Amino acid sequence: MLILGAGQVRQVLDGAEREVVDAVRRAYQLHAHGRSELPHSVFLRFPQDARNRIIGLPAYLGQDSPVAGIKWISSFPGNLAQGLERASAALLLNSMSTGHPEALLEASVISARRTAASAALAAATIAPQAPQTGVSLIGCGVINFQVLSFLCTLLPELGAVTLFDLDRARAQSFAQRCAARWPELKVSVAEGAEEALAAHKLVGLATTAGTPYLNVDSCRPGTLLLHLSLRDLYPETILGSVNIVDDADHVCREATSLHLAEQQVGHRDFIATSIGEILNSGADYRRSESELTVFSPFGLGVLDLAVADLVRRAAERLDLGTLLTDFLPDGAQ
Q1: How confident is the model at residue 302 (pLDDT cuts 50, 70, 90)?
Q2: Do 233 and 212 form a contact (C-beta atoms < 8 A)?
Q3: What is the CATH class of 128-296?
Q4: Of 94, 254, 255, 286, whose CA is between 20 and 30 Å from 245?
Q5: 229-239 per-position pLDDT tens digit
Q6: Keyword annotations for this protein (predicted)?
Q7: SS3 assignment for 17-78
Q8: Residue 206: φ, ψ to 5°
Q9: Is-contact 28 279, C-beta < 8 A?
């Protein structure tokens, strides 16, 4: 059993944004071609505690060297007040020849970067007519910082970022980190969500919202909303927008905004297409200049597998991690 901690995972992934995006792109394309197995994620919730949860994401990805495994990720938003990360995770990879568990990786880093890579890939793929020179980020946490990192890699014309968080100190700290990391960016902190939504035609939503709250009337026509937290938007917003998803069966669950919209109208006709279908078409996709476009990725386990496999292979080349040789019982037991 190869065990890789967070520092070793970061060692592989830091500066590897394009490699991560390529892994995510391939996973989306393989999934759209039916070369995956993706059971519904399992949500473990707790009595008298609606805010916290742990999610299990089993998956199989039939790439040239197939990979199977499961990510087990917790979300405890109250951790932030204690100076802890909201999310923590572990990912187990299994051998495709014996079924034996063969690698255990710290996975909150993997999860954040595959989420950010999928958002940046969507922004680059669901493109407007004009260059995207600015982005608004609502929710100033780990995910949106990584989103900005991947956007800066894929959208070299990006020159401005507008931030908003209910915790203004958190937004200002985020702005300072951005200025230190990307001194060429013009960084500003908005007074309210409406100001942030109006600032740019590309918006990243990564919050801990459990129910819809966001009025999007201040969005410019042609805005792309990267709806990563999945529960920010009212069903009416979803129904009035062009909707692109990663997988309709997965995203229309667990009281997401799209699930609420489906319950309201009794169908999923409001979903236009999936990111995998767009990528597999080979044609340029130009988003509407008059309507809102919403990208709502549930966060497919195959993305975690693709990035975890990338990390594992690099770790083996670099001789990173701890190899535990007696994890499994021997054949005599």
Answers
A1: very high
A2: yes
A3: alpha beta
A4: 94
A5: 999 999 999 99
A6: Lyase
A7: HHHHHHHHHHHHHHHHCCCEECCCCEEEEECCEEEEEEEEEEEEECCCCCEEEEEEEEECHH
A8: -140, 85
A9: yes
Identical fold, 2-110+301-323 and 128-296: no
Measured CA to CA, the distance from residue 44 to residue 181 in angstroms comes to 37
Query: Which H, E and C letters describe 159-184, residue by residue?
Result: CEEEEECCCHHHHHHHHHHHHHHCCC
Could you state, in order of their start, the residue ranges of all structural domains in the chain? 2-110+301-323, 128-296
Distance (Å, whole) CA 138 – CA 195? 11
Q: What's the topology of domain 2-110+301-323? A: ornithine cyclodeaminase, domain 1 (3.30.1780)
Token pair of 84 as six digits: 């802890």
Residue 233, beta-bridge partner list: 214
Note the residue count of the chain. Answer: 333
Integer CA distances (angstroms), 193 to 73, 139, 162, 222, 226, in order: 28, 10, 10, 18, 15
Phi, psi (degrees; rounded to nearest 5) at 136: -105, 135
Tokens of 280: 């597999």
Q: Provide the token pair at 118.
A: 């999928």
Task: List pLDDT tens digits, range 76-85.
Answer: 988 888 888 8
Cα dist. 313→9, 67, 70, 243 in Å? Answer: 11, 12, 17, 35
Q: Is pTM, for the whole model, over 0.85? A: yes
